[in-house]
Amino acid sequence: xxxxxxIVSIIVIGLIAGALAxxxxxxxxxxSIGMTILLGIVGSFIGGFLGxxxxxxxxxxxxxxxxxxxxxxxxxxxxxxxxxxxRGRRS
Length: 91
Prior knowledge:
By secondary structure, the protein is an all-alpha fold. It has one domain. It has helices spanning 2-24, 33-55, 69-90. Helix 2 crosses helix 3 (69-90). It comes from Naasia lichenicola. It is a multi-pass membrane protein.
């Protein structure tokens, strides 16, 4: 696929996962599109890490594997809830 294709696919999956997480978690999140993409990318790594811990798949490739879209959304939800809790304490 190449480097450019990998980067574009990471950005697209990050946008989809981040947007779905923002739709699922109640409340208002003041985030830009860039922050939504970053949320999805972080969620993908969290979902991949949790998938590795639970199912012990892809151990030869390391524990931080890009997850499927479901794992990415679950990880993005976890990251968004943590972000909202930390941001809420500062306000």
